[in-house]
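INTERNAL AUDIT FORM
Audit reference: QA-55
Scope: verify that the stored structure record matches its stored sequence.
Auditor: D.O.
Record contents follow.
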Amino acid sequence: MKRREFITLLGGAVACPCVVAAESAKKRPVIGILAQGTPAQLKGLRFRQSFLDGMQELGYFEGRDFDIVARSAESTADLPRVAKDLVRLNPDVILAGASAHAVAAKLATSTIPIVVPALGNPIALGLIETDARPGGNLTGIMPYIKGLPTKQLELAREIVPRALTIGIVNNSTDVKAIGQWDEIETAAPKLDIKIASADVRKPEDIEPAFKKFEAEHVEVVVVLQSNLLILERARIATAASGTRLPTVYGYREHVETGGLISYGVNLDSCFRRAATYVYKILKSTPAADLPVEFPTKLELVINTKTAKAIGIELPTSILLRADEVIE
């Protein structure tokens, strides 16, 4: 919409002082951020900054072009309450980090637009109608790519070629882990792999999970993509190192915190891309008309320091394919 031009003609009326005051007092649009995690869990994660970087690339700066109100739940169970608190502030759009955040935000409002940078199982969860035409007030980016869990199993087998039993760290309370687990169960028999699973529903479950793997003679582990599991990435890395179990992850943040290897989508890129959705919504495009997007690039990140610490030599074939090696 073109900005109106106010022209003062000779002998004409000047702008009314009350209009000038109203214009200057006009509030900037407000972006509500719904997050999860304690300060210690969130330390080192760049997601919010990646989103702000994306907004700046579009010429939008916090404090000049928009304001932010943020609310964070310490657990998934607390997300519905925190989402209601955020909705009461009536932001113009809500940035809801992942699927659990999306479910809580969607229950709290059917009118405020919601953008989800890490959206999983949205149709099954009733969050959208179709990927191309989401309908309703929610849209976003899906970092879960069909076939990725199978690729992670194959990568685990490549790291330990003779591995017969692979441990899976699951989190059955996370809605986006459901599709991953279903795919693992389908793929394992075809790859002649026996699966040993551990359901990590709270941080205190992590160490027992890896002790269980050790007792069951698991040779390599795959950690599924989950809010809790990425928030507890340091604790998981410590448990994996303590049992000397090579472990494959879906997010690079695990590897940056001491994990061995990750293969998956770059979440920072998803949050940066989410800025485009928010920008368009602030420019009056309905969320219902913004198709869900799927990342086109997967990245392989390796921590060679961790490999040395647990006494494993990664195959050259893997090292040559790495997008980044942390030494």
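Auditor finding: record pair retrieved intact. The chain has two domains: 17-143+267-289, 148-264+298-326.
Action required: none
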